[in-house]
Amino acid sequence: MKKLDNVRIESFTKLISPQKIREEIPISDKSIESIYQGRYGFNNILDEKDDRFVVIVGPCSIHDHKSALEYANKISELNKQIGDKILLMMRVYFEKPRTTVGWKGLINDPFINDSNDVEEGTKLARRILIDIAELGVPAATELLDPFTAAYLGELVSWVAIGARTTESQTHRQMASGLSAPVGFKNNCDGNLDVAVNAMQSAISSHSFLGVDDDGSCSIIKTGGNSNVHIILRGGGGKPNYHMEHIKECEDKLNSKGFTPRIMIDCSHENSGKNYENQSIVLQDVISQKTRGNKSIFGVMIESNINEGQQKITDNIDDLEYGISITDSCIGWEETEKLLNQLHESL
Fold this sequence. Notes:
Elements: H1 18-24, H2 29-46, E1 53-58, H3 65-82, E2 86-91, H4 118-134, E3 139-142, H5 146-152, E4 158-161, H6 169-177, E5 182-185, H7 193-202, E6 207-211, E7 217-221, E8 228-232, H8 243-255, E9 262-265, H9 278-290, E10 296-302, H10 332-345
Parallel strand pairs: 1-2, 1-10, 2-3, 3-4, 4-5, 5-8, 8-9, 9-10
Antiparallel strand pairs: 6-7
Helix pairs in contact: 2-4, 3-4, 3-10, 6-7
C-alpha cells in the first residue's frame, strides 16, 4: 500500500502546553504590573492621551540570557533620567526570519548548535521576558510563528509584524487577537498599502485555527485589535523616513480612516543597511518633530552592549560577549548619547 501522509516528516515531538509552561515558570505580580504599564502607556500615546515619545531599542536578536539582562538593567537606569518624556521599551527578539537558511533565533535553536530544542528555547525565552519585566522594563518583540503568541504573548508590551509577514493573513488574524498593541512594517519593496491593509484587517474580528492554553488545536474567535499602527523601515533599496515619505504615509492612513500614527525604524533600509547610519535617521526624526510633526510618535533602534556583529562559529564559547550574532548594532555608549539628545530635543 502506497504511503501518502508524512512522506517527508522525520519525527514529531510533543511540545509542552502554554498552561503547563505558565505553571512551571510563573510570572510575578511585579512583572505583570510592568507589562501592563508598558501596554497602557503605549496605547495612551497612540490615542494622543500621553505626549511621551516611544523608543524601542535593543539587540537585533537575543542569544544570551546574561547579556540580555545586563542590557535591560542599562535601560532601567537610563529610564530614570529620560522616562518623563520617553517611553523606553526593550527590543527582545527571539525569532529571526531568513531569506534562505541560517540561525532562526533563540526559540528555535537556544544552544546555537542546530539541536533545535524548541521546548527549551521557549522556556528560556519566557524566563528572559519575566526577568526583564522584573526590572520594570517593558519588552517588545516580533512574533514570527503564530504559535509563539500562545506561549509568550502575555509577557510582551508591544508586538511587531515584520516586513515579510505583514501581507500574511495568518499574522493579521493573530494580531487581531493579541492583548498588546501591534505595529505593521511596510513590506520589503517599500509598499505602504500592504501595511495599511493589514491594519484594517487586524482591527476586525476573525475566526481561525490556533492553539488554546491546553495546547489543543482550536478555532479561535477574536474581537479585533484597535491598537495598531504602521512602521516605516524603508524598502526597495530606499529609505522612507523623510518629510515627503511621512506626508505620503499620512495621506494613505487618513484615506482609510486612521489617525496618522507613524513609527520609524532607524535600521534596515532606512539606514542603508549600515548600523552606523541609524543616528542620521534619528536626527532627521528629531528635526521633523522640532518643526512640529505630530504623526511620528516613536522610533526603533538596533543596539547592543557592544557595537558591530560577529559570525557564529562551531564553538559558541568563542562568541564575544554583548555583540550581535545577527544584524550589526550600535553600542551602548552611542545609544545612551543618542537617547539623551532625543530627550533634550523633546
